[in-house]
Write the structure tokens for this entry.
Amino acid sequence: MDAVTLLVEDLDLQTRYYHEALALDIIEDPADRLVADGRRAVVTLGRGGTPLVVLRHTPGLPRPARGQAGLYHTAILFDEQAGLAATLASIAAKAPNTYIGSADHLVSLAFYFTDPEGNGVELYWDRSRSDWAWTPDGHVQMDALRLDPNAFLGEHLTESGIATPGAGEAIVGHVHLQVGDVPTARAFYVDALGFDETLTWNGALFVSAGGYHHHLAMNTWNSAGAGPRASSIGLGEVAIVVPTADDVAALDARLAHHGIRSRNDGATLHFEDPWLNHLKVSVEG
């Protein structure tokens, strides 16, 4: 998974949240050098030079309607629990009202937030793959057990983490979407795109590549029956990287076989899911 693009109404407010509260670095990306009225129109943020979130200023768009398809959350995966704890402490100090919950998912420990414009954010750490349990039919065992954030901070927060909350490495681990129904999501993401189904659980579908617990998830918890999205702030683009241009071409052929329109320049493939969530697949590096 690559950086998630968000369409935002207040670029300064959103930048402060991701930079100051989540302790993400502002990355100078030549592609961001768009200006509107003399101001930056796009801001890329990440860790260690790795982009995680791209904020694109799109004033004039409405907020998503209640029950609309779109983004459920962007999930940022930390390589160490200490780095996750440091970021949690930063949010607790600078934007405590954005915290909405936490859970032990057996495969991971996850903490959930909502940014100032209503976009979901998950910050999480994975247990070792050797500790994940799989059923005989290839589904990963997950749950939503109680996870005490204060106990987690007490165990993993360090003085150096408090001083430098942005020091830990992180990547986009997965993206979770809101969709209208699970069967249509399965037909698109599993049958057409070729992801492996790893779990169907409580109105949600989890899919991955390479034996991960999930790279994408689609749920109907707030959006059952939703049709194609209307234009709004929120999710702009989900980006996926693959090893070679041949992989891009193979996916383009799969989409054509399933009657899904796409735009392919040889290195990057653009297309939309049945709810008009925009996806981009490009060559890694």
